[in-house]
Design goal:
This protein is of the alpha+beta class and 153 residues long. The protein has 3 helices and 9 strands.
Amino acid sequence: MAVSALVLGLAASTSMVSAQRVRWTTYSIPQTGTSVDFPASIFTEEAGRPDGYGQRFRTGDGRADLTIQAAPNVSNDSPAAFLAKKHPPARIQYKRTTPRFFAVSSYKGDTVWYNRCNFSSGLIHCVLINYPASEEREWDDIVTRISLSLRSR
């Protein structure tokens, strides 16, 4: 199980995020009951399948990507234990861990990465988002909506 893949992307102007009307849709993983709202007008291309169940998406210009993923929690790890096993970078900018989920974010070069995983019914349900650090403020509301919409049956 590799729910830990953090994908890189993005780099140019903020017009892609801030100038267009964002069209939202819900992506669901039927096998696991995972669902999440995502901006289909921004993440327009499928970019392959992650480990477990789900889908990767990216922007048309490849500057940002989104992974929606679910996998079995084979070790029955708590969010804190699972995150510790993945050895996240030492300089995490944001980290919140509860008995039901974790959310972490930081910088990797000129990219911001964000990862939230909810734990329920023996499964780990995750969203992983990568976007240009130069556009961080423009992405804040989008990342927040995606993150808060992550749910399972």
